Amino acid sequence: MLGYLFHSTGFKTIPKCYKFYFIFSLEFFHWIVSSTGNKNVVCRHLELSDMDSVRKFAKETIEKEKKIDVLVNNAGMASGKRKLSKQGHELTLATNHYGPFLLTILLLGLDLGDMHFKNRSYSWIASYGQTKLCNVLFTNELARLLAEKGINKKRDSEQFTPRGCKN
């Protein structure tokens, strides 16, 4: 388990304790402590499909932790039937993407609700940082989409057109 690797290093770790897996998570929490000897493990409640829960988790983490060295976004769930999150998003998308995305943005201190600095003081470094993050996120997604179309780095100039079709 990836989590076990981090826990066994002795670093302070915060496994996310999901509402519907809370009993399992507490058992897992105790197992981590006993099997690794790492007593520097904290268990906090987080429901990744609920954006209010994500905001609360991020706020508590920022208030209680001096720094975060590693953030592992490895959520994965699927539902046999279409279900909605508390905010009305499709549950799998909310849990596997929206929640981890929001958590990462909040822990980085970015405010996507005010990207134009209308309601917060302007900082050139914050502005620059959020634009560069947007570029990285867009570039990674673009690379994935282009790879699906068979467009690769070797011959992009020959294969890429404004409509993404091969010549």
TrEMBL record:
Matching Pfam families, A to Z?
adh_short
Q: Which InterPro entries match?
A: NAD(P)-bd_dom_sf, SDR_fam
Keyword Oxidoreductase listed? The answer is yes
GO MF terms listed in the record are: oxidoreductase activity
Q: Which UniProt keywords apply?
A: Oxidoreductase
| Name of the molecule in the record | Retinol dehydrogenase 13
What organism, scientifically named, is this protein from? Armadillidium nasatum
